[in-house]
Amino acid sequence: MKVEANAAMEIAVAEVKKTEVERGNKVLVTPLYGVKGEQPMCYHVSIDGCNILLDCGWNDKFDVDMLKPLAAIAPKVDAVLISHPDTAHLGALPYAFGKLGMNCKVYATLPVHKMGQMYMYDHFLTRQDQGDFQEVFSLDDVDTAFAAFVPVKYMQLSMLRGKGDGISVMAYAAGHTLGGAVWKIGKDAEDVVYAVDYNVRKERHLNGTSFDAIHRPALLITDASSVDREVPNKTTRDAKLIDSILSSLRMNGNVLIPIDPAGRVLELILLLEEKWAQRQLGSYQIVLLTNVAYNTLDFAKSHLEWMGDHVTNAFERRRENPFNTKFLTLCHSMEELQALPPGPKVVLASFGSLEAGPSRHLFAEWAEDKSNLVILTGQPEHGSLTEQVVQLSAKATAKKKIKLTLSRRIPLEGSELAEHESSRKSSTSTELEKKESETVIAEEEMTDIKPVEAEAEPMDVLFGVTTVGSTQEADLRRRDTLTEGFTPISTPHGPMFPDEVWEPTMTDYGQEIDIETFHQISQMSSGIPIPEPMKETTVVDDLDVANIEEDEEEEPQEVPTKLVTETREINIRATILTVDFEGKADGKSVRTLITQAAPRRVVLVHGDAKETKTLKDALTAGLPGVQIDAPDAGKTIECTSASATYKIRVSDALFQKANMRDMAGYKVGWVNGVVGKALEEGGAPMLLPVSALNSNADGMALAPSNATMTKVSAQPGSVFLGDLRLSDFRQALAQEGIIAEFADGVLVCANGRVTVRKDGDEKLVVEGALSQDYFEVRQILYSQYSIL
User: Where in this chain does the record put each Beta-Casp domain (predicted)?
Assistant: First the structure.
């Protein structure tokens, strides 16, 4: 019997090892671009053969050469995760879908989906006004890319399909932009966390992020760009900004704030509205100038649930919507801005890089006036006009000269307009002639088929009933065919057998049908003129026909334009002010959050060489034993876990006996069982209750050895689930009436009779005499955990 038991045990072990995933899930990380420099972000992660793209950004120059690494992988991508709605995170999606063959689902929160679409619409409309942008991407490409989006909510578990079967994705609030996300990718018992451009501070419309739901992920991919950032005091920063704006306005100057069309501009709008109301500055105009100004503000008004608790509470209690602005004026073009009443203005214009859009034209117009002010609210994009302006602002006045290339479209006039109209008419005439020629050829190829009139039956004649020709065998014998006899016809004939066409002469109510009425309607809707006699004798009472004529009259004709480009040399005399409104975490917060998350491996991206080295050194010291990687662009690193993973199915009878508790998004509980056979070949073995050994009639349970059975029968020790801080425990004691104070890092309770201290990272030690106070403190401590 002992030999048989040992043999059965070996079989059980073999059954489990069949489902072992060698060294855990295979995870490969390849930064396509966006490492060791301030570039857009795009990173390729492969999990067991499923290709996931983390962000798909581009720069405001739309440099196609930058996307060569993306072009190689785009057709193979199975899913894309987007963290923020700006160009640096999703700008390359229209090009990837339209030109690179990408065809997959794109996961993002609803605000990122909608705001990102506004970003790309504004980019296209701006570039198209300054040149031919169709070769990069079109509005159809934008629509195709955003039709692939799968909007998700925060903490909503979404399962991938196809190659991603078994992989889940979940978004957490990032706090940097509306709908910005920190992504957690799960496979089996391991998580990959992607966290870039997050903010821990509470703002006027957003809450800060928190890594409380992220604990010991197998891999953390995070950015190093904020490691040296020192965020100024919020009150001091706001006061500096408003005082600078008022100083310029009171000198009859204008203020230009280059911004992106959706995203961080919402925080600026709320700040200006708040200060304008407090200081009663209604005499100075605030203007939002983008192609999608109305859409951006309208979306913000209707999606307050994605904003901070203070915003939603104010709306629920007092019906206050912070985006029902009182001082903000929306403009969608330079012409609308110029039509506003004269006077000093604060203009928030796209784009923040000054590479294109109304902000570039306003900068060229206002930069030479020393009473004007240009405010830059974020870190300038590498190689952009904004970066050049920041560098020049530190130089002497005589050296602040810069050459700008400005492009715009103007209507055609005179001979150019006449030539364009002539060319258009010639092209239209050629197309009509081609269509008419094709129609004539098609008609000649068809054979005229005579309609068949059915013979009336005697009873029909008696009662005056009109009968439609039937398709009975007798009728078919009496009808003509395409070819009579056995001699083929010499002329072309129809490609189909003849089919009778019933043209009724009366309606179902006995009214005679006037066929000419339908001919008139058809001619009017197609633009064919109606002969005069027909107009005089026929009256058409049809509202749809009138609407067709009205629409044709009201449809505006597109004004032909031409592109005009000029190069101007600008001597920058306006004041250049840089204020940090990026809404990103400071260096200390970054190091603290990563250390608290306690990842088992870290990959650093998006930061220059100095920032990357600084954060890597800090994490090496703060996370001893954790591997920290900082790969170059295009280099693949393997991040496969060293822990083997086993798949096993738990029987319903065993699962019902388990006392499950929630822990970090999982259900955790103890089970005692024995390994059984797999239900299907190649499937996972079944874990059965211990009682299955006694009633093993079908031979499902594999009997373990006596030694193994002894271990299974032993009662497992208690496991405390939770993350308790001594400061929180002190508050819990105070609520129960027990006074506790800190002394040298130790919590002294009940007048010194009981102490609680930390021993390492995961142990709390309670010491004291066995008394009523001791047991009360211990019981309160137990109540702070979920105990298995």
Answer: 265-389
